[in-house]
């Protein structure tokens, strides 16, 4: 039975009658036939005079009631409903209807991963250029259909060649997951977000193939991709992609599993404003869960990370307002924009928590984006949580920091901060130099070994004597070529040794000269500032060293703190 409840009155009509009436009057609404009108009039007459309502036209219901009824229909019926009448079409196309579908949970959300071929077609909507038939491609008496088929075949062949040879650019090519970096092998993944059969947004992810042998240049790959991925990758993993963060390690089902295999990071999520009414997180949650559960990604990642993004939930008008007040707004407007920024960032965090993500406590900081989160594949096996459930989840917030130090204490903090930044850069440079040096030695050794083997075989052949099939002149040329090659090999070997030794010397210079000099300068400066009346405790210098993980100077700083203040100078964060 089809039922419509309005103002406590219920109209009913058997499904068989409903179908027969629609067949008689297909161009009108489902309840606008004469027979249906008679039945509705009969029902109205049964009501008291004060209860009578005009039910003759279903489409004349109040808009909110009509939206509430229609939003429960499956997306596959939307085309038929839109063709029913103008009122239905206007209702289904309205932003209010889309918002009701999203908030009520009736929206049908899915994602579609765009393969390299699909991305190529988007990048080249007109197909390959300069493709035409030449005289030898078809016979002179070929029909138009045969010529058209041959041209289509040539276009497809040129398309396949361009996808392989040229790719997206000199750096990127096309792959089954989208675009692939030719140098580091990471995939940039694009997914369409589809709601009720229409594309309403996109997701962008990147997956880095760390492998299982810890020989992938993880930091180099993150550096080459983007500033955000560099920040996340260097904070959470070492140079080979192994985890440094204890909170993620504690969640592993098998020790070390999240430190190898594919590393997936969510770059951006953008979905139409109509499906995010009043900060509703339903559609975004389902879209991200669908993206991470794509069959083509199954088994290809062991860890996924994300930074909460305020742009996911900011409307177009709010984004424009934020840009406007950034450079010319008053204090009240800037405060309002900043408040909305944190509200939207929190909404994105709650969205990820609904899917199964967890917060990374080690990344909580005043100067970073609001929240960093991660998930393992096992986290996504549970159903999506309700908003009310995750809204009660306590988040780890940045600590309440005291006011910035002033005077000499401020000078101590500034000197410590400058030193920590410089030392961290030196340490990162030394680590990169060591990795490059090891790689150069390994590659050069294998290359030289192969060249030496080839020349050794040639020398052995020469020592065996001239074959009867060769003339003396040709034999002398071969001997001379081998001798020149051996001489070039020795020179090449010496050049490589010189280059490696230079790299070793530079490496040792950084460790034996640059780092001790920076340490000595820092210690002398801080000692002088303490003698001027500065306080290590009040300047938060120890907290600064802990933040930059320059822990080798903690003992030196504690020695500059009066014994009675040392307990207060350290915190659990340190």
Query: What summary fits the major beta sheet?
Result: 9 strands, mixed
How much strand content do the residues show? 5-15%
Q: Which percent bin holds the helix content?
A: 40-55%
Report the strand count: 11
As a whole number of angstroms, the C-alpha radius of gyration is: 35 Å
- Overall residue-averaged pLDDT value: 82
Determine the N-to-C terminus distance.
68 Å
Report the uncertain regions: 1-37, 47-56
Overall 3D shape:
flat
Specify the number of helices. Answer: 21
Fold and architecture overview:
- The protein has helices spanning 15-24, 34-46, 63-70, 78-82, 86-93, 95-104, 116-123, 144-165, 218-225, 227-236, 246-249, 282-292, 316-328, 331-355, 387-391, 407-463, 472-531, 536-539, 541-547, 554-559, 566-569, and strands spanning 2-6, 9-13, 109-113, 172-175, 178-181, 187-195, 198-209, 262-271, 303-307, 358-359, 372-375.
- It has 574 residues and is an alpha+beta fold.
- α12 crosses α14 and α13 packs across α14 (331-355).
- 26% of the residues are buried.
């Amino acid at each position: 039975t089809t039922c419509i409840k309005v103002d406590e009155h219920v109209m009913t009509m058997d499904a068989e009658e409903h179908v027969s009436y629609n067949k008689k009057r297909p161009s009108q609404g489902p309840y606008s036939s004469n027979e249906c009108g008679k039945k509705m009039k009969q029902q109205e007459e049964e009501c008291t005079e004060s209860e009578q309502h005009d039910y003759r036209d279903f489409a004349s219901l109040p808009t909110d009631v009509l939206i509430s009824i229609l939003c429960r229909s499956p997306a596959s019926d939307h085309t038929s409903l839109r063709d029913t009448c103008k009122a239905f079409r206007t209702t289904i196309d309205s932003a209010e209807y889309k918002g009701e579908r999203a908030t009520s949970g009736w929206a049908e959300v899915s994602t579609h991963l765009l393969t390299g071929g699909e991305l190529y077609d988007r990048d080249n909507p007109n197909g390959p250029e300069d493709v035409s038939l030449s005289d030898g491609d078809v016979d002179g008496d070929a029909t138009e259909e045969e010529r058209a088929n041959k041209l289509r075949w040539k276009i497809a062949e040129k398309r396949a060649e361009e996808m392989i040879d040229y790719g997206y650019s000199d750096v990127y090519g096309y792959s089954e997951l989208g675009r692939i970096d030719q140098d580091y092998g990471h995939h940039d993944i694009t997914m369409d977000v589809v709601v009720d059969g229409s594309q309403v947004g996109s997701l962008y992810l990147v997956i880095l193939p760390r492998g299982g042998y810890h020989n992938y240049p993880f930091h180099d790959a993150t550096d080459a991709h983007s500033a955000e991925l560099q920040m996340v990758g260097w904070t959470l993993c070492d140079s080979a992609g192994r985890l440094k963060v204890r909170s993620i390690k504690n969640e592993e089902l098998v020790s070390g599993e999240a430190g190898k295999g594919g590393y997936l990071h969510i770059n951006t999520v953008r979905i139409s404003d109509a499906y995010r009414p009043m900060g509703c997180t339903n559609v975004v949650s389902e879209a991200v869960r669908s993206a991470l559960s794509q069959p083509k990604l199954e088994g290809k990642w062991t860890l996924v990370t994300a930074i909460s993004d305020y742009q996911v939930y900011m409307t177009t008008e709010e984004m424009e307002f934020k840009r406007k007040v950034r450079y010319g707004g008053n204090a009240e407007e800037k405060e309002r924009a900043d408040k909305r920024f944190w509200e939207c960032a929190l909404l994105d965090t709650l969205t990820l928590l609904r899917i199964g993500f967890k917060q990374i406590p080690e990344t909580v900081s005043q100067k970073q984006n609001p929240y960093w989160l991660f998930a393992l594949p096992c986290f996504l096996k549970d159903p999506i949580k309700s908003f009310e459930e995750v809204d009660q989840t306590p988040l780890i917030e940045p600590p309440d920091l005291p006011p910035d130090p002033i005077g000499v204490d401020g000078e101590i903090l500034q000197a410590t901060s400058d030193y920590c930044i410089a030392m961290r850069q030196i340490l990162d440079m030394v680590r990169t130099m060591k990795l490059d040096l090891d790689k150069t030695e390994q590659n050069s050794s294998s290359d030289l070994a192969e060249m030496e083997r080839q020349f050794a075989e040639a020398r052995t052949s020469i020592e065996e004597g001239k074959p009867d099939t060769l003339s003396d002149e040709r034999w002398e040329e071969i001997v001379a070529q081998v001798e020149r090659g051996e001489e070039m090999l020795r020179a090449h070997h010496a050049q490589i040794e010189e280059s490696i030794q230079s790299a070793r010397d530079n490496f040792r210079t950084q460790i034996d000269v640059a780092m001790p000099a920076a340490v000595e300068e820092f210690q002398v400066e801080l000692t002088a500032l303490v003698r001027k009346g500065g306080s290590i405790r009040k300047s938060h210098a120890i907290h600064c060293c802990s933040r930059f993980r320059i822990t080798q100077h903690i003992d030196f700083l504690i020695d500059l703190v009066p014994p009675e203040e040392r307990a207060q100078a350290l915190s659990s964060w340190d």
